[in-house]
Amino acid sequence: MCGIVGVVGGKSVTSLLIDGLKSLEYRGYDSAGIAVINNSEAINIKQVGQVELLERKTNESSLSVAKIGIGHTRWATHGEPTITNAHPHSNADGTVFVVHNGIIENYKEIRRILEKDGYTFISQTDTEVIPHLIDYYLKSNSDFKDAFIKALNDLSGSYAIAAIYTKTPDSIYVARLSSPLLIGVGKDQNYVASDASAIINHTQKVIYLKDYEMATVTTKKVQVHNFKRKADVKPEPESLDFDLEKARLGDFPHYLLKEIFDAPETIKLASAGRIRPKSNIVKLAGLESVQEQLKYIDRIVIVACGTSYYAGLVGEYLIEEIAGIPVEVQVASEFKYRNEPFSKNTALIAISQSGETADTIAAINKVQDYGVLKLGVVNVVGSTISRITDAGVYCHAGPELSVASTKAFIAQVTVLLEIALSLSDGKSKLYKPLINELAEIPTKLISILNQSDKIESLAKKYSKYRDFLYIGRGYAYPCALEGALKLKELTYIHAEGYPAGEMKHGPLAMIDSNFPSFVIATGSSLTEKTLSNVSEIKARGGPIIAVVSEGNKSIKNYTGDVIYIPKTLEQTQPLLVGTVLHLFAYHMAVILGKNVDRPRNLAKSVTVE
Ligand code: M6R
């Protein structure tokens, strides 16, 4: 999600703005920018990708003495991630600069009115109406605060806004409605931010702005005004009890558990601004630049490694079923050595949390000369894969610190579902039901997370075994592979994922009372078939843990070790099942005393072949 930081006072604000933006990186973003005023002259610098790249740009220019500035990390919703669409946005003569979090719902209407009045817009964003609107009111002899309030009264939607004006180079103007904004009170320097992590290194004293409040923040003073009630408000600073490390880990004992519990938020972050149930729209800003090419794609090849590969397998089922385009998923390390034909109508989708996986990068480089459209589904903004692909959709899961990928899997599956919906162009009969169901998944996930203790008890019961088989059919099959990988890497226990239908073709021979099976038989047309595999396992004395959908009564005939997930569409089941499997592997690892966040022999980012 977007992030805001602002600083007024002191010797130089530029490095503070950059540091603040770096602390906001965890929220996910795809471009960043700052605007500073130095002797009534403004400098606006923006960059697509990492804050580090923006920092390099600011080092090159003479910003070192600016005493006021605002900064922003943007996560594209209206318009692609480009320098033009990045914040801060300004009016035509470059005197008013604005950064904004949230969505201005009536921006098209405001834009139309302003355009009739001679205003020109250069970006595709909703935010750009704000500086122009302020400019409009400034022209009618308002002072800045007055013009700012008049503009706020015209906006509908949600916002946290920070603005600066070259003619009042001692003030930052901020406002909020349904989007967080706080003011940090320092000594000879004040701060504004959308999130305490951006200012915590400078002050612990903060004023939380409330809805319909705006404030004028100078070096020495903070004046708050309620623009709905038209009344000044006495600011009440509070003390920030905030430890950055603790804030990131919260009350969780491990990053892995925290990241598993991030799943509901991860889905919201990966769909915000992209999935719009009210208007029935799926809008992927990152693919806008290749819309025309996408119309001619008749084959998709997905390349990835590890968990990203398993997310890709779910993506294969989704894209084929929803968009009707044939998909093939290949492990990147195999793909790069194969000799297969490509046509110009092929798209390659590279999936990677880190965006730095050497094999996946090599796979992309391999198709460089074939005219293939190269797309990325990447989490880390500005990473190599995001730069060497033609276009892509960021996962926006925020930093994943634990070596085992969990929330990245959830985000990748969500994004692949969005890509499938977007490619279907609204024609699939699943289009509307899936848009609606995706909005329900975060709540359904909470009911799974609430079963963490129960899953822990099951893990205790099964922690004595040294081999596991994970089986499923349809969408449950890639989940079985993911569940087995998570158990392997976190507990070092031997585990295999298999299509349930393959049992009789070999794996059944392994089954005895020492070889448990983790069966995924969540509601689908294939459940009965999977249950017949379960009866074969039971007949051979194999212990069984089952994940089924609520309401499944027949499972009790086979095992008492059952985890129930809320009913959902078959296509969204991997999001719920994935979280069950992640929790099981986590609890097993803790029970067995393993290094949960840093499993032996593994690295978070595999940058060598
Ligand atoms: O950063 P990537 O998504 O490209 O990484 C791919 C794999 O290395 C990664 O998913 C690995 O399998 C995880 N440790 C699994 O939890």
Can you give a write-up of this model?
This protein has 609 residues and is α/β, with parallel strands linked by helices. The protein folds into 3 domains: 3-242, 4-Layer Sandwich (Glutamine Phosphoribosylpyrophosphate, subunit 1, domain 1); 255-444, Glucose-6-phosphate isomerase like protein, domain 1 (Rossmann fold); 451-597, 3-Layer(aba) Sandwich (Rossmann fold). The chain is 34% helix and 23% strand. The strands form 5 sheets. An 8-stranded antiparallel β-sheet has the order 3-2-4-1-10-9-11-15, with helices on one face. A 7-stranded antiparallel β-sheet has the order 5-6-7-8-12-13-14. It has a 5-stranded parallel β-sheet with strand order 19-18-20-21-22, sandwiched between helices. Helix 13 links the parallel strand 21 and strand 22. The protein starts with a strand and ends in an 18-residue tail after the last helix. The mean pLDDT is 92. The protein binds 5-amino-5-deoxy-1-O-phosphono-D-mannitol.
